[in-house]
Amino acid sequence: MTQAISTYQMQILDCISQVKDEEELKEIRNLLADYFSKKALDAMDLLCEKGALDTTTIEDWSREHLRTPYKY
């Protein structure tokens, strides 16, 4: 099953087609990582403001091991 590329994805691809070297690609990757990191932090802040999340929950997450067990 193939999914069509959206207009937004096409715009990103068009911008990326202008990349000239590995350094520019690295900069773009960092910009995207920073962008999505900020979005995640903003969402967590909102959950904290609503009382759905607190520091105890976040600390509990840091100790969780949610790995998928695989049978070989």
In short:
The chain has helices at residues 7-16, 22-50, 55-63.
Report on the architecture of this protein.
- With 72 residues, the protein is mostly helical.
- Helix content is 67%, strand content 0%.
- It is built from three helices and no strands.
- The chain has helices at residues 7-16, 22-50, 55-63.
- The radius of gyration is 19 Å and the shape is extended.
> What is the CA–CA distance across the termini?
28 Å
Tell me roughly what share of residues is in helical segments: 55-70%
| Range of strand content | under 5%
Question: Low-confidence stretches at least 5 residues in length (pLDDT < 50)?
Answer: none
Mean pLDDT: 92
Q: Biggest sheet, open or closed, and with what strands and sense?
A: none
Number of helices: 3
Radius of gyration based on Cα positions: 19 Å
Label the overall shape: extended
- Strand tally is 0
Structural class: mainly alpha
Question: Which sequence of SSEs, written as H and E, runs from N to C?
Answer: HHH
Secondary structure layout plus pairing:
Layout: H1 7-16, H2 22-50, H3 55-63
Jot down its keywords.
mainly alpha; 0% strand; 72 residues
